Amino acid sequence: MGVPLVIRSQNDLLYAYQLSAAYRSPWVFDPDLALRSEPDIWEIIRNEPVVLAELERRNRNVVRPWRVIANRHATKSKNISKGMKDDSKKLAGIVGEGIAYIAEFNAARRRLADAFTIGRTYEFIHWDKRDIALDGLPKMEWYIPERMTNVDRRRIHWVTDWSKGGFIEKIGVHLEMFDSNKYGWFRISNDMRRNLVEYVFTNEEDRVGYGRGTMQALYFAHYCKTVGVKKMSEGMDRYANGIMKIKLDGLRQASTTKTNEDLLAAAKKLAENYRSEHYMVMEEADDVEIQDAPAGALKFSMEFIRYWDETIARLFNGSVRPSGHGSGKTGARAESETQADTSEAYYQDDRRHLDEILERDLVHAFLYHNWHNIVKLGLDEAKPPHFTSDQIKRQDALTELQINKESVLAGAPIMKSEWYETINRTPPDEDEEVISLEDIQAMEIGMEASKDVARESDRDTLRSEEKEDKKEGKKQERRKMERQGESRDVGQKRRKDRRTKEKEARGV
Length: 508
Known about the structure:
By secondary structure, the protein is an alpha+beta fold. The chain is built from 17 helices and twelve strands. Strand 6 (156-165) and strand 7 (168-179) form a beta hairpin. The longest helix has 70 residues, at 437-506. It is flat.
């Protein structure tokens, strides 16, 4: 029997019938619309420069330095003995040192983090039996995770199970994996699944185990940007040498055996020769003009592409500025900090989710494979440890110091373990020198002075940018006036030439 589906509909019976009707095929297909349109869509999109840059930025911020810490319930509960607290810390130390043996562990975590985009990711854990000492213990034989290899999500799918229960059929599902060597599918056993790290992002009822990433929204943004780039490329090709405007002399047909169609074909040939050879030969009576691209045409195209670049940035990071796509002035420190906070909120949520996945599938797998040693050491009653990544502070150091200082002065108790975890610091040993209130106050003075310098630098930068904008505006105004003057001169000359030709034609 596979893993049962949890029916969350208000009308369970109705939903069960609807679900069974949809699952009459043994395979439960991935409902992702982007994947349905193109099986290799993720590989295509991720090679787009902006997508790749934003993906790398997000993964670098999500995948932070990691630790294995003692179970929080074991360290905070008043009813737990000191010995139990020590056991939980000891178990955390063993697991942490064991996991540290994984080669290129950060790379594996970054691959898992792609679930944010593609909905689900898998890593297979490879174990090795080694005689080693962990956390200061004597040497023992441990099963150590030596590496993790990626499993393409397209190699794993859900298959339905059916069984009779009363007057309706009960529905369950199990996982199958494609074996590329035997070129066939096989059922993933429980033992194999213990070695599989499975990260399903936003698994909703209608996703039936496949998760919901940002791929569908990203696919739409990528498609729109691709259309914009194609149109801009066509426009750049069209306007690279200008658009040729040919005015055929209407009197030429009367003085030649050629028809209007022949004259038009000759004009088209003239334009083709100009484009390929950059010169042309024409009748004296014809008027040929080279037109530049319309004002603002290229700017409009660039703004269109920039809009979708910013949309892609928001999909990955929740904001624009961290990726350098913002169109505003660079001196806006407050705006940058706000957007950085928004991005960090994205990262922090995904970071915690990834930590939970690794705690569930990696930490517990280590305990399962080494349970005989855990029992032998008398740690089988200790609570399982947590896998956690270092968080980036969402406020600056000065704010953090001020909050803690005011809390202590007000008499509010603050646990040292929580305080150190909040500021990403390691608690000092008993013989190490610790920071004092006077030290914090001295730091405040120095940081405030640094902020004053930074604010003054921003004001100087803004004033400089405003001056440059004024200069550029004056230059553009002069160019506009010069172009207008040139246009008037050209128009006057053409009108004069046309009157001269008309007089010659009348024999005046």
